[in-house]
Amino acid sequence: DAKTTQPPSMDCAEGRAANLPCNHSTISGNEYVYWYRQIHSQGPQYIIHGLKNNETNEMASLIITEDRKSSTLILPHATLRDTAVYYCIVRLGRYQGTSYGKLTFGQGTILTVHP
Amino acid sequence: GAVVSQHPSRVICKSGTSVKIECRSLDFQATTMFWYRQFPKQSLMLMATSNEGSKATYEQGVEKDKFLINHASLTLSTLTVTSAHPEDSSFYICSARLPPGGADGYTFGSGTRLTVV
């Protein structure tokens, strides 16, 4: 799986949008960008994923650049409960056979949402 | 959605004893499960991959005789830390690969905080 680079930490004011960047310059054509987050002392939680197009769900939006070498996770109205470590992972999609393999976690970005 | 139940959430054991951690898929069959370890302020590190009915595959540097993994059924995988030492104190997390359908390929347990005294 391609390696990702994220800033170690970011701050955001409650109610504002949190924009978390991720660089994945070595991503290959059949690899997806996945985002997970881990709230302190809990297991990781799936947020969103995408291949080429921008994606939105009830939790967040994912913006992927046209060259696919970077992406941004957007939490539109951050709350205190969004304080967590956010992991950007690039890997094969789940429908690409049983060989889509294991998740490799980088260091992630510690997002702190303050009042 | 698909849920993985992990127990216990916290355990304290004496040095030299063994501890078993269970990971159950509640509403789906998990042919593949993963075990991670996470030290304070560090990321998750994959320890091993377990497949139902076969031997687990361990990552480099992980002692298979110390971390025994059993995946005897499609809904249960266990990790046993044998002869635990204080340096084994960590946060252990299991993950299951989801069957086709749904938004993502993996779901995670809530983790087990192991403290060896």
Question: What is the CA-CA span between the terminal residues of chain A?
Answer: 37 Å
Uncertain segments of chain A: none
In terms of per-residue confidence, which ranges of chain B show pLDDT below 50 for 5 or more consecutive residues? none
Q: Helical element count of chain A?
A: 0
Explain what this protein looks like in three dimensions.
- The complex is a heterodimer of chains A (115) and B (117).
- By secondary structure, chain A is mainly β.
- Helix content of chain A is 0%, strand content 45%.
- In chain A, the strands form two sheets. Chain A has a five-stranded mixed beta sheet with strand order 1-9-8-3-4, with no helix packed on it. In chain A, strands 2-7-6-5 form a four-stranded antiparallel beta sheet, with no helix packed on it.
- In chain A, strand 5 and strand 6 form a beta hairpin.
- The relative contact order of chain A is 0.34.
- The mean pLDDT of chain A is 90.
- In chain B, the strands form two sheets. In chain B, strands 2, 4, 5, 6, 9, 10 and 11 form a seven-stranded mixed beta sheet that branches.
- Chain B is globular.
- The model of chain B has no long low-confidence stretch (mean pLDDT 92).
- The chains are: A mainly beta (115), B mainly beta (117).
